[in-house]
Amino acid sequence: MGNFIQLPLLAMRGRVIFPDTTVSFDVGRMISLTAVKYATAHDSRIFVCAQKQSEKEEISESDIYTVGTVVKLRQITRLPGNNLRLSVEGLFRAKAKQVSKEDGAFIATVEEIKSVHGEKTLEQAYLRTSKEILKEITSGDSRFPKDAAVNLEKCTDPDVFINIASHYMQISVERKQQVLECARILERLEIMDKFLNDELEISRLERKISAAVRQNIDKNQKEYFLREQLKAIHTELGDDVEEKEELEEKIKAKGMPEEVEEKALKELSRMSRMQSSSPDYNVLRLYIDWLLDLAWNEKTEDTEKLADAVKILNADHYGLEKIKERITEYLAVLKRTEGRTAPILCFVGPPGVGKTSIASSIARSLGRKFVRMSLGGVKDEAEIRGHRKTYIGAMPGRIITGIKKAGSINPVFLLDEIDKISSDMRGDPADALLEVLDPAQNSTFLDRYLEVPYDLSKVLFITTANTLETIPAPLLDRLEVIELGGYTTVEKKEIAKRYLVPKKQEANGLKSGEFSITDGAVLSIIENYTREAGVRNLERMIDSVCRKAAVRLADGKQQSVRVNEKNLQDILGAKKFEKDTSLGADEVGAATGLAWTSVGGTTLTIEVSAMHGKGDVMLTGKLGDVMKESARAAISYIRSNSASYGIESEVFEKTDIHIHVPEGATPKDGPSAGITMATAILSAFTRKPVRKSIAMTGEITLRGKVLPIGGLKEKALAAYRLGIRDVIIPADNKKDLEEVPEPVRGDINFIPVTDVDAVFKNAIIGL
């Protein structure tokens, strides 16, 4: 057994490297780049093996041949796009005894394969025969380098001859691998002799075809000669010539823009000169199919009557009157201008309020095709713009893919969750979307795969988001924001009765006479089993009720199932929430705030503890920077005005303050908790309790002013759901009360304040 060495392994796609040769190639996969980095850090040697399936991007140890060549890195050139061009010298053949993956690269334990010589006379006889065959091949094949042919003629070492000849021969990876793996010289020569004879036969056939064509045409008709030669080659190979002629007819009949048609015909001409077994043939064929499948002129006609569009919106959605009014205006302008000045709408709101559903309804109301593309988790710009078709497995971006799916040039295209895109080293998708959503640019949108401009100006783009905070400013500037707030209990009940119950009843195979659910049961589900701004969890609960009803009917014990408040708990289990669960005894150092999140409004309990210490301040509960600043501003105000509240100034120097917001696993940030923190802090120092029945929201300044906040509607709904009926708000937010639904506005006592003293007066008992 020979000596074993450990080397980084580089998997080659569609190529076998031999000893005694110097070759150059490009690498770009991360696993390959890591292997090169490892090699340069050691002795610059690397073990190169062929990949069994060249089209496979992600590979394991089983996807690689075990026999390869140990090479020496001679030159490394950096290319655009984080790629490298390597120049290597083949040293010797080797076999991998073990392959493992370490730190993102394959590491192989290899043993050198020694060539085994046989009878010298016989080897030389085979060598001489191979040289004669190779000489005849090269004399008529311009693809074989002349200098290589001269060097092979002078070569006296059969092992070296086999390596160099195999490198230049136009044979498959499998055949080259067969030559590489064989240890006995005589056996390698026998294999080479067979491959060379096959190549000689192909070379003779090519010359025969060329001579046959020349006999039938005039020497001056060059174009005709080339076409006839190509036909003769395809006939000999069994290729379908009629298919290519049919493709040409389809391209000319498709009605593509002139530039696109010219590109398609050019690529078809290239494809026609290739063998159907060639990888490049399949690449070009797929590319032409994409151009043919895309809509270039096909479009749907918009609904003529605006009243019909409005009727569909009302049928699909309950409530949302202001939203419907804005969409009606949008549709009216769209029809009057024929889409020339249509803004890009962005529906913003918590999950489950119907953002995606409204976009679908807009498509239905216009009579257009609807395409949805989720942007959640998209990090690669290529997902928008596509990959160049020269890459293995390249495809157009998701924009062009969606257009192909729609089959028209004017679909309604929903870009869902635009607030959740991010970026990495592969580019920023937001930059690509800037072009997509800009009417001044999207008429000539260039997908990298297509390599020709595509007109997106007739596409009606709509976006959705849970929050605006994470949308890049340049992208947000192109959007018209329409906010969708949460639903009241009454609205949820109507949505459930009109849409959710019939939908889930049908989905679970329940007939109208077999299943029913009372209004009281629906209301109980809303109040006791869900707590959300939208209706997504409500839909899940109704679905659960329907499934359990289906089980009871399937048993045959019941002919019908009626769900009411009394038997609901038997079906869904114990209640998850109790009304007024947030209320209780008044407490010292604890105040209830209101916060807005990406999933709607919520309550926020802030706890403060004052204890003997050195004046330190502790902030816990996974608070963001803005919230921490609000806490320090609240402390500073109370300290500067301590005398007004009967607190000796020296107390702060001897007291540690611990501010905590429960549910520490959830990140919290924003300035609107400022007055809540101040209230809890003052309560802790004065030992006077805070009213549990009151909630508050507002930003505090060092002078004690209360500044306006956002998301008042969602915060009001959160208070309403928890049974809180007194809410302190900044006076500047009084104008926003119009957005609060009438039932909520009538049931909650909103207390506008301009300064924090008014907050303390209303919230702290006995101050």
Topology:
Blueprint: E1 4-12, E2 22-27, H1 30-40, E3 45-50, E4 67-79, E5 83-102, E6 105-112, H2 120-140, H3 146-154, H4 158-168, H5 173-181, H6 185-214, H7 222-237, H8 241-253, H9 258-272, H10 279-293, H11 306-316, H12 321-337, E7 344-348, H13 355-366, E8 370-374, H14 382-385, H15 398-406, E9 412-416, H16 429-436, E10 445-446, E11 453-454, E12 460-465, H17 473-476, E13 479-483, H18 489-507, E14 515-517, H19 519-528, H20 536-554, E15 561-563, H21 565-572, E16 590-597, E17 600-612, E18 617-620, H22 625-640, H23 650-653, E19 655-660, H24 674-686, E20 694-696, E21 699-700, E22 706-707, H25 712-721, E23 726-730, H26 742-747, E24 749-753, H27 756-763
Parallel strand pairs: 1-3, 7-12, 7-13, 8-9, 9-12, 14-15, 16-20, 18-19, 20-23, 23-24
Antiparallel strand pairs: 1-6, 2-5, 3-4, 4-5, 5-6, 10-11, 16-17, 17-19, 21-22
Helix pairs in contact: 2-3, 2-6, 4-6, 5-6, 6-7, 8-9, 9-10, 11-12, 11-13, 18-19, 18-20, 22-24, 24-27
Q: Look at the structure and give the CATH class of the largest domain.
A: Alpha Beta
Low-confidence stretches: none
Mean pLDDT equals 84
How many alpha or pi helices? 27
Quaternary status:
single chain
User: Under the CATH scheme, which architecture of the largest domain would be assigned?
Assistant: 3-Layer(aba) Sandwich
Number of strands: 24
CATH structural fold name of the largest domain: Rossmann fold
CATH H-level superfamily of the largest domain: P-loop containing nucleotide triphosphate hydrolases
- Integer tally of domains: 6
Q: How big a fraction of the residues is strand?
A: 15-25%
Net shape: elongated
**Strand order of the biggest β-sheet:** 18-19-17-16-20-23-24
Q: Describe the biggest sheet?
A: 7 strands, mixed
Structural category is alpha/beta
Percent of residues in helices:
40-55%
Rg from Cα: 37 Å
Distance between the termini: 91 Å
